[in-house]
Write a structure and sequence with these properties.
This protein has 534 residues and is an alpha/beta fold. Helix content is 49%, strand content 14%. It is elongated and about 90 Å long. It binds 5'-O-[(L-methionyl)-sulphamoyl]adenosine (MSP).
């Protein structure tokens, strides 16, 4: 079972391009594993509790749940638009989750892992956390990023995190697979060495009411991280007493891939989460694997409200189309590293790799097959050097694609397919099928060329299905290829059989025009309409 999850998104604002990037990355990986015939379960959702949601709801004069649900709808609408194929939806206000969190809290308290104590210190209202001297700037003050800072003394419940740190250090040291990429595991190891405090897991109800109450001390609610992290197991059926609306935990767990951003590896996932599981009694073999992606920035800067540079993925779907955005996010980001969102690159990559390279290859090859051979293909009965080289290139591209997808490197996987597509376009130029068609002596060579081109497009079109599900279906329809039963592993030369019939093509990847190109086109159309009237 390939159980893949993502971070759950805060419902205190609208989704942005960073959220979309994470979801597309996870979706591509989920689709890839499904395509390989692995049983796959993809869970994602929303993190609905916490101070910020409570504040926003107060401002809007509605209940926190109503506010959280309104924002949740923006996320679900976007995921539908982007064709995110999740199997399970984790919303932390779900009573099934609440029950699971409360059960875990009770068990941890009974085991002696939770204790209550009083703490006095500086507290950031905006970030909902106590501040230590580490958070002071060079001038000794707490910076403006913390918003209003007040002195506060309060009693709270704590998780004995530090008791689990020696185990965590050893576990992360001995298990390189726990964090991908490797350099993030090294960061985590350094952070583990600096971990000297237990984790406060509650907030007094009089300060924060929008959260899951502690079952053994109802004046407190659960700290938002403690609540949110548990979603990975609660919605996988952990301690659900066989609730049929949830999956079977034994089948799903441990998660093969929890996709998260670099900002929430330390301390949330790398330290709190693994220690929480350890405290609950999960053995080493039952620890999840974390895939840590970088940030999507805007011209090198972090997206933020104050900079006014937040990018709404809905606008990009309107402008470029959902699949163009999917391709860009999977192709122009190196998993694990930061990248810059740049609409010019989106247009350039789409136009060059999809509209020009693959789109033209498919369109030209299908058109030539229809025009020169009535749409019927014949398997070649002879060979030549260029065709053999093309087959070798396809084989290598497929192997690289699979290797890179397995390693979660969507960009390099797609790069390998594109390299093969470019080679196919070179093969067309070299072979000039339009000239071969004029010479009846060259009929066999023409068939060979068309066969090699269309077989290539069939393979590429199939594999692209995990990134561009809609375009892949359209391509395969035109090629009359049935993808049912195909897997990347069983994909071998010869999908197209003797006498295979293809359809008249229609372009699958229309060019994305610049605003100037659009204007020119509109002016041309207007002039033509004027002429027709006259
Ligand atoms: N609610 C927590 C996660 C709880 S998981 C148990 C949270 N939410 S978030 O909405 O702030 O972020 C959700 C995910 O989006 C995180 O993995 C975060 O790293 C990712 N991103 C948020 N902004 C991002 C970018 N600008 N670029 C890429 N991903 C980023 O954290």
């Amino acid at each position: 079972m390939f159980y893949i999850t993502t971070a759950i998104d805060y419902t205190n604002g609208a989704p942005h391009i960073g959220h979309a990037y994470e979801k597309v990355l996870a979706d591509v990986l989920a689709r890839w594993h499904r395509m390989c015939g692995e049983e796959t379960y993809f869970l994602t959702g929303v993190d609905q509790h916490g101070q910020k949601v409570q504040q926003k709801a107060e401002e809007a004069a509605i209940e926190p749940l109503e506010y959280a649900q309104q924002v949740t709808q923006k996320f679900t609408a976007l995921w539908k638009r982007l064709d995110i194929s999740y199997d399970g939806w984790a919303a932390t206000s779900d009573p099934r989750h609440e029950k699971c969190v409360q059960r875990i809290l009770t068990e941890l308290r009974d085991k002696g892992c939770l204790y209550k104590k009083s703490y006095k210190g500086f507290y950031s209202v905006r970030q909902e956390q106590f501040l230590t001297d580490k958070e002071r700037g060079e001038d000794g003050q707490f910076g403006s990023e913390w918003g209003e800072v007040i002195e506060l003394e309060e009693e709270n419940w704590y998780f004995n995190l530090t008791a689990h740190i020696p185990w965590l250090r050893e576990y992360v040291t001995k298990h390189p697979e726990v964090v991908t990429p490797e350099f993030r595991r090294q960061d985590l190891l350094m952070a583990i060495d600096r971990s000297t405090n237990d984790l406060c897991i509650s907030r007094p109800k009089n300060r924060l009411s929008w959260g899951i109450p502690l079952p053994f001390d109802p004046d407190f609610v659960t700290y938002v991280w403690f609540d949110a992290l548990i979603n990975y197991i609660s919605f996988a059926g952990y301690a659900s007493d066989g609730d049929a609306s949830l999956p079977s935990f034994g089948k799903l767990w441990p998660a093969a891939c929890e996709v998260i951003g670099k900002d929430i590896l330390i301390p949330a996932h790398g330290i709190y989460w693994l220690c929480m599981l350890h405290a609950m009694g999960f053995p080493d073999e039952q620890m999840p694997r974390l895939l840590v992606h970088g940030w999507l920035n805007i011209k090198g800067e972090k997206m933020s409200k104050s900079l006014g540079n937040i990018v709404d993925p809905n606008d990009l779907c309107d402008l470029f189309g959902a699949e163009a955005l999917r391709y860009y996010l999977a192709r122009d980001t190196k998993t694990g590293y930061d990248s810059d969102y740049d609409p010019e690159r989106l247009r350039m990559i789409y136009n060059s790799e999809l509209a020009n390279d693959l789109g033209n290859l498919a369109n030209r090859s299908l058109n030539m097959c229809v025009r020169y051979c009535g749409g019927t293909l014949h398997t070649p009965s002879s060979d030549d050097e260029a065709s053999a080289a093309l087959r070798k290139s396809l084989d290598e591209a497929e192997k690289t694609f699979a290797r890179q997808m397995d390693a979660c490197n969507t960009a390099d996987a797609l790069g390998a397919l594109n390299a093969h597509v470019s080679l196919c376009n070179g093969y067309i130029e070299q072979k000039q099928p339009w000239s071969l068609a004029k010479d009846p002596q060259k009929a066999e060579e023409l068939q060979r060329v068309l066969y090699h081109l269309l077989e290539s497009v069939s393979h590429v079109g199939f594999l692209l299905g995990c990134v561009l599900p809609e375009a892949s279906t359209r391509l395969l329809d035109q090629l009359q290829v049935d993808a049912n039963g195909l897997t990347p592993q069983s994909l071998a030369w010869g999908i197209l059989k003797e006498g295979h019939q293809v359809q008249v093509p229609s372009p699958v990847f229309p060019r994305i025009l610049t605003p100037e190109e659009k204007e020119k086109l509109a002016a041309k159309a207007a002039a033509k309409a004027g002429k027709n009237k006259a």
